[in-house]
Description:
three-stranded antiparallel β-sheet
Amino acid sequence: MNNPGNTVAGRILYPAGRTNDYVLVNPFASYCRKLLGRTWTLQLNVNNVFNLRSDQGNNWTWPRYTDPRQYITSLSVGW
Length: 79
């Protein structure tokens, strides 16, 4: 039997949800350099590079969308 969603007294309140398959692409680039006796690493991450939006929630009233594209930079120093 096909799941029609939530029903009350034979009436459909909202249809059964199903999300499409998709792939998130999260590339990064880093640059490492020894300077002043320390190892410095600069890194750039791009999360959700194609800015895909998908409802991943399991509740009709409270959808949980994927995060939009984000640029994250970090600088670390090794002792």
